[in-house]
Amino acid sequence: MDLDSHQQIKAASKDENAGNSNSKFVVPAEALYSLSQKKDTAWKTITQDYGGSLNLAKLLLTDVKLGLNMTAEGEGFPERTLFYGKNEYPEPAPINIFKIFIDSLNDFTLLMLIFFAFLSMALGVAFPDSEDERAVGWVEGLAILIAVALVSSVTTINDYSKEKKFRSLNSEAKIIKVKVIRNGLNQNVLINTLQVGDLVELEQGDQVPADGICVESNQLKTDEASLTGETDLVKKNTTDFLFLYAGTNVAEGSGKMLITGVGTNSEWGRTLLTIKEAGEEDGKTPLEEKLDKLSENIGKLGMSIASLTFVILIIGYIARKLINTTTWLEEHGKFDDIWETNNVVDIVKFFVIAVTIVVVAVPEGLPLAVTIALAYSVRKMMKDQNLVRHLAACETMGGANNICSDKTGTLTLNQMRVTHGFFAGKYFGDQIRSLMLSLNPNVLQILIDAIVSNSKANLVKHKDVNKEYETQGSKTEAALLLLLVKHLNQTIESYRERRDELMSETRGPHIQFPFSSKEKRMSTLITNTEGETRYRLFTKGASEIVIKLCTKIMKTDGTLEDMTKEKEHEMMHYIEEMANQGLRTLCLAYRDVDPSYDFNSLEEENNYLQNLDPSTIEEDLVCIAIVGIKDPLRPEVPGAVAQCRKSGITVRMVTGDNILTAKYIAKECGILTNDGIAIEGPVFRQMTDEQIDEILPKLQVMARSSPRDKFLLVKYLKRKGNVVAVTGDGTNDAPALKEADVGLSMGLSGTQVAKEASDIVILDDNFSSIVKSVLWGRSIFNNIRKFLTFQLTVNVVALILTIVSAISSIFENHNGHYQPPLSPVQMLWINLIMDTFAALALATEEPVPELLDKKPHGRKDSLITKRMWVSILGQALYQLTVLFVLYYGVLSYRNGAFILARNDDERRTLIFNSFVFCQVFNEYNARKINFEYDIFSGAFKSFYLIGISVLIVLLQAVMINFAFYDPVLIAEGKNNGEVASRFTQTIPLGWYQWLISITIGFLSIPYGYVIRFVARTVLYFVEKTKGDNSSNRVGIADIESDL
Question: Catalytic annotation on 562?
């Protein structure tokens, strides 16, 4: 690039970055962004305007080999960040809490309550019962409005808290690490710390972290469907198709890119900025859908009962008017109705009662309970190394009865070491320390070249001096590098120098054919400067597959020996010997290659390499070595697998390893049983549907499997009605992860594509963490059932109490005024206890290990079990009995000076107080839904349960004694505790009335034990009568263990 062009760029930079005119950077962000828009012509523009990619890198003060200079620019690259921006995208604005409040009021029943509250206020003032009541006729309507506002406020706070939690979880899900080269060293950095000028290493499965140009391509292809909608893969190189875009995925191959646009200066960032996407929202989970349906049905029942109640009240009201408040006029021959204008107030009150019944009947708390349970569980699951990406996965894992697990890193530690080997025609077994003394220098060099050329992994010195090395990249490749460093007299510096030399442009063209899960191998073709041929090919892959491609064996002195049938049989014997010890075996081979014709230019040669089919040259190979790599089993895995079996979960190992290795590890961790079946992927995919159906129940190991095999296995399992969870770490695992009911990707070894396709990311790649996710899933489902048991009891009691009292009011002899046992404000308060406080208390209970001792709930299992109905109806019977006794008998009870209730206000307050305390104590009954006796087990460890119980009691005391603080009563001078509050319609109770209320509530606990005892006894005899002989009869101990 000439001086004039440089000056033009500098001038443009000053114009577009006026605030940074003194910056040392000469290429403005907007100019770099415009390059990305040129698509296919970008390479020509870079060549013409900037002198090519290498010169553009210099202008960006970086290097295509060494990356950014951290030493020169300082920590965090402050000046570069100021000039080019951060790699962060626009986030949707958080939802305003006031908007959430307004949305919470957008409910038909609440809007009806608000309407009738205002109507009640207007009519109460316009048509009071007496002139003295006119001044306070608005109070009851205001009380309803306050109660509605309180309910909506609690809903708002819950929704706002949920929104904050999920935003926090989303930010955690976006924590992605990127492999970069800075100061010539490989590093892993957070994606939001990437800078323009960074040199990024890309591999199959990676997400492209920002916009940039390709500076090295090894069969690199990207999937740009997320950006363009086109599903065809796009091949990338360093010439005509060199631009890579943020948000796309590396589908095949590997390479390096130079970052040119970050954040809102990238194509993806500009798109987000334009349309201001709010991001993908999670839809309703299956459990939420079930609960919505249940809520709808209960709501319809409540609406029917409310309508019936209103009709009954109107009929009763008219009947009483006709009977009690009319006079027969003989001279006119008709009734002289004395209807008064204020009677319309009573009609409005009937409407309010009916609408309040609907509010209480519609269980808004069900979705809220799910929301709280999920939000709470998702946060807790993070501590158990489960990052939940889709909420439905939390609950679905509770019903999983099949887990298809990878081996490496999930069942094993992913700490690979070469422990055995066959090198240069000689089997060393576990004596690989003697390699240096046994191998010819030429053989040693070829072995080193075979390892470093087919590796993108790296070793770095560990920060802990007591540990040797940290590994970056593939653990298998790192194990081979460790072999070099520990046994072949290499250092980190020496193997890196050799790899750079083999891959250098000065040496000549080279190409890497990435690992193929179908072919089970990878290869690298380099320019052969030391030999007689143009190229040398190094191949690494599954030993029994690569060995079939070998026609010769290298011996310890460097000579070559023909691969005879006897020799191949001998080597297969060594492979089996290592595999039977649980070792992963790899074969390293090479071949010298000459192209079939001469090249006229470097460009022609590069085109030849880019279009070369590796299968055409991966033949007639020379076997260098077969290595046995040990990956120790995680110590906690056998126990976790045994727990899965006890929990009714079948664990199946699906691995690409040799079948002997797979069987050894599967037996070691308890997956493969004596009657279990182990099969290879190629055999499985050739089987008919009938054959697969036959072996499926006992299929426990699938070896040498391809991603397609895993996908098919999942489909077959789901077709049989199983709930399937699948682990995966590779790009090609994405279809199986998507097909599964729950896709589990690996946080440490998983590609970004696998993580995006999964529902849960296992952060530590540990199988025991998967078992913890099952426990949390079961806990969520169990907690929702607890809440259902509690809430439906309240619904049944409140609805029956209201409608029975309404019917009975027809036969009561008074002047038309019906006061229900529970006023609208009191019912709204109970609704608040039921929908919010109970949801918080019961939905946040910690999981107990005993949940894993039960079988998983089925895909179509009902939310409400028969045992739950027994508890619901049993408790409802008790509560209705005592409340009806109080409602119909308390005013007539006299024992000398002792009176339970002096008037109707005191009676209704006593009923209200007793009803609330029944719910306080029944919350503890609801903690156990399978007739267990230990209802207090773990209760005192639950902060929410105890705290909410105390809070309800304190607030109830305020409600009951509000007459002392009622501003209207204070203004009238009637706040002496003898007149009911205008707001709460409660009157202060005496100590003995409090004692009666609390006793009635407390008795629901021993009564609950009676229900449990009777139910268990009946269940025992029912089970006993089913048995025809003693061998299949069930004892009480069996019943208890089942519970």
Answer: no
